[in-house]
Each structure stands twice: as C-alpha cells, then as structure tokens.
C-alpha cells in the first residue's frame, strides 16, 4: 500500500514539471509577465503602463502600443506562452513549455521520490516471505 502511494506521489511530481500555463497580457501581473521568455522587467513595466490605458484588444494592438514588440518578437512571445485575450498569435507555431528553475527543482524532487519508491519496493519485497517450493 505504501509503495503504491509513494509511486503515485512520484508520478504526480514528475508530471508537474511538464505543466504549461499561458500568460494573458491583460490579466497577468508583472511577475507573471517576467516569467515569459523574452519579457524582462523593462518590457513588463511598459506592458503594465499601457494596460492602464485599457486592455489590449488583440496582438496588433499590443504590437502598436508597446515599444519593442513587433511582428518577430510577437511570434516568439506567443511561442513562449503569452496570449492576448486568451488567444495566441495567429499563424505562430505552437507554444512550447519553457524549462524554468522550478522545473529543474521538480525534476530533482521526482528523481528523489523515484529512488525512495524503488528502495521501499525493495524493502517490501525483502520483508515478504518466499512461498514454499513444491
């Protein structure tokens, strides 16, 4: 029983590293915007300042109002998970999950949990008496 629970926890931790959340330019705070590859503190501040004037209607509106965001950077930002009103840039390749520091920590935790599960399974097997031979 313990072995099954430990295995389930290890699996859950391992899959968490692959979760990918999109960041909506109209809803995200500065920290969430900074988490998108290609957006740093300067660009997130510019986005937040422009957003005070009103939400971005679409990608064209974002490109027009925020200095430093043009066609090429919009494609890259969309690939990195940025969306406008829940929509990625039309024609941009599908978003890919970035490998963040948190993902690396999660991978280490998953590896540690896997080792613990293997050790528990080995101990469980050793504790189980062998069936008599016929």
Walk me through what this model shows.
The protein has about 130 residues and is mainly α. The chain folds into two domains: about 55 residues; about 80 residues, DNA polymerase, domain 1. Helix content is about 55%, strand content about 5%. The protein has six helices and two strands. A two-stranded parallel ribbon has the order 1-2. Helix 1 runs antiparallel to helix 6. The longest helix is centred in the C-terminal third of the chain and has 27 residues. The protein is rod-shaped, with a radius of gyration of 23 Å. About 10% of the residues have low confidence.
CATH topology of the largest domain: DNA polymerase, domain 1
Number of helices: 6
Overall mean pLDDT stands at 78
Question: Per CATH, which architecture of the largest domain?
Answer: Orthogonal Bundle
CATH hierarchy, class of the largest domain: Mainly Alpha
Helix and strand topology:
Blueprint: H1 2-16, E1 23-24, H2 30-34, H3 41-51, H4 59-65, H5 71-79, E2 82-83, H6 101-127
Keywords:
134 residues, mainly alpha, DNA polymerase, domain 1, two-stranded parallel sheet
Quick synopsis:
This protein has 134 residues and is mostly helical.
